[in-house]
Specification:
This protein is of the alpha+beta class. It has one domain: 2-Layer Sandwich (Alpha-Beta Plaits). The protein is built from 4 helices and 8 strands. The strands form 4 sheets. The protein has a two-stranded antiparallel ribbon. Strands 2-3 form a two-stranded antiparallel sheet. It has a two-stranded antiparallel sheet with strand order 4-5. A hairpin with a 4-residue loop joins strand 2 and strand 3. The longest helix is centred in the N-terminal third of the chain and has 9 residues. It is globular, with a radius of gyration of 16 Å. It starts with a strand and ends in a 9-residue tail after the last strand. The relative contact order is 0.26. The mean pLDDT is 87.
C-alpha cells in the first residue's frame, strides 16, 4: 500500500510547525527544510497554503534530470536525489510545477523532500492535520456489464 500527502489549506492556521519539524529533522545534514507555508490575502481572513513535495507518480523533476540523479525509493516512496550524481543543472528546479525542488544557497545544492525516511515530520507534527500522510488503496476498475 502506498501513502499520499493530503493537503487541506482550509485547516492551515499558518503556525509553521510543519516548517519547523522539517527543518529540525534535516538540521543534522545542515540543509534547509523543504516544507513551506505561503500566505494569501483572503479578504476577511488570511489564508495559508502548505506546499510539500507530492512525490508525483509521473514527476516532472525526474523526467527533466539529465543524469538520473532522481530516482524513486522503493522503500519510502520518495523521489530521492543522489547528490553524488547531481550536476546542479537546476533542470528539476525549473521543471517542478509546485516549486518543490529548490536550491540551498548556503550549500550550493539542489534539495528536495525525502519524506523523512517514509514518515514525513511535517505531517506528523501538523497540529490541525492540514497536512496528512495517508495510505491510499489501489483503485480497482469497475466494469459495467
Amino acid at each position: 500500500m502506498k501513502n499520499r500527502f493530503i493537503v487541506n489549506p482550509d485547516l492551515c492556521t499558518g503556525c509553521r510547525t510543519c516548517e519547523l519539524a522539517c527543518s529540525f529533522t534535516h538540521a543534522i545534514e545542515g540543509l534547509r527544510g523543504q516544507t513551506r507555508i505561503y500566505p494569501l490575502d483572503g479578504g476577511f481572513k488570511d489564508l495559508w497554503i502548505p506546499v510539500v513535495c507530492l512525490q508525483c507518480d509521473d514527476a516532472a523533476c525526474v523526467k527533466s534530470c539529465l543524469v538520473d540523479a532522481l530516482r524513486r525509493n522503493s522503500e519510502t516512496g520518495a523521489i530521492d536525489l543522489n547528490q553524488e550524481v547531481c550536476v546542479k543543472c537546476m533542470a528539476c528546479v525549473a521543471a517542478c510545477p509546485f516549486g518543490c525542488s529548490v536550491v540551498d544557497q548556503q550549500h550550493k545544492l539542489v534539495v528536495k523532500c525525502d519524506l523523512c525516511g517514509g514518515d514525513p515530520a511535517c505531517a506528523h507534527f501538523c497540529p490541525t492535520k492540514a497536512l496528512k500522510w495517508n495510505p491510499i488503496e489501489p483503485q480497482t476498475r469497475k466494469v459495467a456489464v
